[in-house]
């Protein structure tokens, strides 16, 4: 079978294969290719930290009623309910009279934002 392929064709195939390898290797290792990934990671780092802080705030202030993972306890589950941000921040700021305390005056603004981000992250 190999004997039927002319030598020039074989050489062409080998050259093409070598060219593909030579072309691909440096482009994968190129530093520039890694840059957009690094930028994307940096972008998502901020919300992740906010959500992590929000979970801490949640454990201290909300978990006694809503459960450690917001799965519901005395208070309702807050997971996968499609709650819009305004509803979450409204609940945190104003509470529900006789049911849930208002946290507007209890938590500082960054912690309120963090806990809202945490609850938002549970809606997906
Ligand atoms: C004392 C118990 C208690 C605590 C503490 C508490 N909640 Fe609640 N929460 C409730 C109850 C009960 C409801 C339901 C109120 C209603 O629907 O009338 C509720 C409702 C909510 C809702 C609206 C849910 C919906 O389906 O519309 C959100 C959002 C919420 N809480 C978030 C929080 C967050 C965030 C914290 C902590 C900062 C917190 N809650 C702390 C008891 C509590």
Question: Can you describe this structure?
Answer:
The protein has 124 residues and is mainly α. The chain has one domain (38-124): Cytochrome Bc1 Complex, Chain D, domain 2, CATH 1.10.760. Helix content is 65%, strand content 0%. It is built from five helices and no strands. α2 (31-61) packs across α5 and α4 (85-94) crosses α5 (109-121). The protein is elongated. 15% of the residues are buried. The model has no long low-confidence stretch (mean pLDDT 81). Residues 61-62, 64-66, 74-76, 78, 81, 83, 87-88, 91-92, 96, 99-101, 103, 115, 119 line the site of heme C (HEC).
User: According to CATH, what is the topology?
Assistant: Cytochrome Bc1 Complex, Chain D, domain 2
> How much helical structure, as a percent, in the residues?
55-70%
Number of domains: 1
Q: Quote the beta fraction.
A: under 5%
Note the total helix count.
Answer: 5
Gross morphology: elongated
Rounded to the nearest angstrom, the distance between the terminal CA atoms is 58 Å
Order of helices and strands: HHHHH
CATH architecture assignment name:
Orthogonal Bundle
Mean pLDDT: 81
């Amino acid at each position: 079978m190999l004997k039927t392929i002319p030598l020039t064709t074989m050489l062409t195939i080998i050259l093409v294969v070598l060219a593909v390898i030579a072309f691909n290797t440096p482009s994968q290792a190129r530093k520039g290719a890694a840059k957009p990934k690094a930028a994307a990671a940096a972008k998502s780092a901020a919300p992740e930290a906010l959500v992590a802080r929000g979970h801490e705030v949640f454990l201290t202030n909300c978990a006694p009623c809503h459960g450690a993972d917001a799965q519901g306890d005395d208070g309702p589950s807050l997971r996968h309910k499609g709650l819009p941000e305004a509803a979450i921040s409204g609940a945190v700021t104003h509470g529900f009279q006789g049911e849930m305390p208002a946290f507007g005056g209890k938590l500082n603004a960054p912690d309120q934002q963090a806990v809202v981000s945490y609850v938002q992250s549970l809606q997906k």
